[in-house]
Each structure stands twice: as C-alpha cells, then as structure tokens.
C-alpha cells in the first residue's frame, strides 16, 4: 500500500473512532454534553486524543497530565434567548501528577409562572451547574485521568443533585506524532427531580 492510501485509511479510522457513542434511554442533565473551548469547537469536538490544555478537564482528563505549568481558562457563551453558558478551569502540576478544578454553569433565564388556571404569577429562574475535581498522571505510554463531579439542577424551588465520574486514557508512544484517546463520561447513579428519576448522559468517546 502506498503512502497516500495509508493516510486516507488512517483518516477514515480516526473519523469513525471520534464519533461518540451515546447509551440509549431517558437521560437528563443534558448541559453536561455542552463542549468547552474555542480550539476544540474549531476541531469539530475531535479533542479526545489531543486534550492538552485546561479544557481537557472536560474532554479527556488524562490529557491534562502533559501540562507542565499552571493554566487557567474561561469561557462564556450567549446562546439563543436568555441561555448563557460559562466554564472555568484551573490546572496545576503537583507531586502526584496534575490536579484540575473546574466549574460549569448554564443559566436558562427567567420564566413567567402560571397557576392552575393559567393566570400569571411571579417569575422564576432555572439553572444547571457542575463542579469538577480532576487528577491525571503520566504513564510509560501516555497518561490516565479521572474526574469527580457534583451536579445540580434547579427550577424555581425544586432541585436535583447527583454525582458522576469521568475515566480517561491517552496513549502516545515516545517520539510519535500520533495519539489515541478514550474517555467514559458521566458514569454515575440516577438523579431524582421531585418524584422522577433519570439517567445521566453516559457517553463513550474515542
């Protein structure tokens, strides 16, 4: 096989591997699927195997193991209507590896309340947020990383709280230009809102 077909085959394989696998079933906390970072967005979210800056806390926690200095990132996005999304991440090398801290916040704005007769009442707000703690460490052929996250969703006076973990790995042989990433995101128990339980948006990306 000549060099050009080899490159084409590798490209096709990487394209297929980059597709995220979403597990079927009713899920909530959809804001956890909102990507972060202009760089990753510009690459069509194909960031699992790269993940080499503070946004890696979201994409693949194993990737932050390659960061050698403190790093901070902020993101703010104005969506349609009153939807606003914010993300902040901090990464710092420590003796045991690389530590990461992050927070995401989705504001859904204000809503007009209605009573049982559909008459206007006072307005109320809704928001979703998550707090993340990450740890990553280099290995002989790449790195391993994990996130622990606390999730909270609020609508008026009702709320739901949950916990989840992300498990990530990144393989890159010394002096190689290629890397492979694998991450399992939002692994955790059901969240319960009022009387209804729902699954987190569990996903596997490579």
Summarize this entry quickly.
12% of the residues lie in helices and 50% in strands.
| Number of DSSP strand runs | 11
Q: What class would the helix/strand composition place it in?
A: mainly beta
- Report how far apart the termini are: 26 Å
Tell me the major beta sheet. 9 strands, antiparallel
Number of helices: 3
Description:
There is one protein chain. This protein is elongated. β4 (97-114) and β5 (120-139) form a beta hairpin. It has three helices and eleven strands; from the N terminus they run αβααββββββββββ. The chain has helices at residues 3-18, 38-42, 56-59, and strands at residues 21-22, 71-78, 84-94, 97-114, 120-139, 142-155, 158-171, 180-187, 191-193, 196-198, 203-205. The two termini are 26 Å apart. A nine-stranded antiparallel β-sheet has the order 1-11-8-7-6-5-4-3-2, with no helix packed on it. By secondary structure, the protein is mostly beta strands.
SSE layout and pairing:
Elements lengths: L2 H16 L2 E2 L15 H5 L13 H4 L11 E8 L5 E11 L2 E18 L5 E20 L2 E14 L2 E14 L8 E8 L3 E3 L2 E3 L4 E3 L1
Antiparallel strand pairs: 1-11, 2-3, 3-4, 4-5, 5-6, 6-7, 7-8, 8-11, 9-10
């Amino acid at each position: 096989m000549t060099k050009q077909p080899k490159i084409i085959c590798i490209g096709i394989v990487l394209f297929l591997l980059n597709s995220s696998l979403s597990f079927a079933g009713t899920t909530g906390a959809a804001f956890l699927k909102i990507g972060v970072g202009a760089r990753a967005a510009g690459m069509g979210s194909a960031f699992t195997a790269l993940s080499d800056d503070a946004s890696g806390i979201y994409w693949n926690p194993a990737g932050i193991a390659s960061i050698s200095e403190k790093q901070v990132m902020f993101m703010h996005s104005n969506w349609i209507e009153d939807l606003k999304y914010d993300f902040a991440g901090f990464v710092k090398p420590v003796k045991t590896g690389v530590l990461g801290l992050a927070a995401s916040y989705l504001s859904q704005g204000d809503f007009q309340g209605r009573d049982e007769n559909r008459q206007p009442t006072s307005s109320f707000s809704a928001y979703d947020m998550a707090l993340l703690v990450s740890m990553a460490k280099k290995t002989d052929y790449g790195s391993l990383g994990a996130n622990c996250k606390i999730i909270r969703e609020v609508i008026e006076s009702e709320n739901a709280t949950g916990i989840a973990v992300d498990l990530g790995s990144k393989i890159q042989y010394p002096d190689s230009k290629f890397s492979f990433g694998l991450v399992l995101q939002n692994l955790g128990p059901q969240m319960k809102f009022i009387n209804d339980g729902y699954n987190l948006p569990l996903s596997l990306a490579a």
